Amino acid sequence: MWRRVQVVAMQEVYHSNSILKKYIAQPILGITLVILLSVTGCGTPPTTTDPGMPSSPSNGAVSPEPQQPQSVAMANVTIYEADPQCQELLPQTVSVPSDRPIEAAVGQVIQNAGTVDFNIVGYRVTVDNTTGVATVDLRADPNSQRQFVSLSSCERFSLFGSLERTLTENPQWQIETVEFTERGEPLDI
Predict the structure, then answer these.
(1) Could you tell me where the DSSP H helices lie in the chain?
(2) What angle do CA 121, 178, 54 make, to 5 degrees?
(3) Is the separation of the CB atoms in 85 and 56 below 8 Å?
């Protein structure tokens, strides 16, 4: 009799364990999995590219070790911004990477001169060292509500005046004249 009571008791324990597994452990495991997937995501992270920088390969390869940020030599340059009344351009000293100071300075000016309904999504700067002419090729966002021709005189002064003064007033770049183009076509400013 003792053996029969022991077997029945063991069957009840086994039965109650299977109930625990079925109704508690499995749902908890499922909920935990859902939470982990929603927190970590299961897609690939979005990528962005800087218009002045080359894009990285998109083969999905991941380096096995996290790379330590390399120290980048910085240079101080003067950029110019329009005052709130659009009467004059005010100098401001900023630090930019010394390997691409002109592109970085132009990027800072463009960022500071942006408006809510007009965006510049890309730019390229070329400098002819023999003539001292810099050409800034701008790319307006085709989805912007406005384009270059619709900029007010203050917005034009803020963008083009700041770019021109920034490029010509940094003597180390030896730029005398600045030309503006949009996708290679001269901009009428």
Answers:
(1) 2-20, 26-40, 101-113, 153-156, 162-168
(2) 40
(3) no
**10 Å Cβ neighbour count for 127?**
17
Backbone angles phi, psi at 155, to 5 degrees: -65, -35
Largest CA distance in the chain: 109
Query: Using one digit for the tens of pLDDT, what is the confidence trace for 1-55?
Result: 544 444 444 455 445 455 445 555 455 544 544 343 343 344 333 333 344 443 3
Task: Report the candidate in 55, 14, 57, 173 with the shortest Cα–Cα distance to residue 104.
Answer: 173
pLDDT, tens only, 135-149 = 999 999 988 888 899
Q: Cα–Cα distance between 158 and 154 in angstroms, integer?
A: 6
Question: Residue type at 118?
Answer: F
Tokens of 18: 């299977």
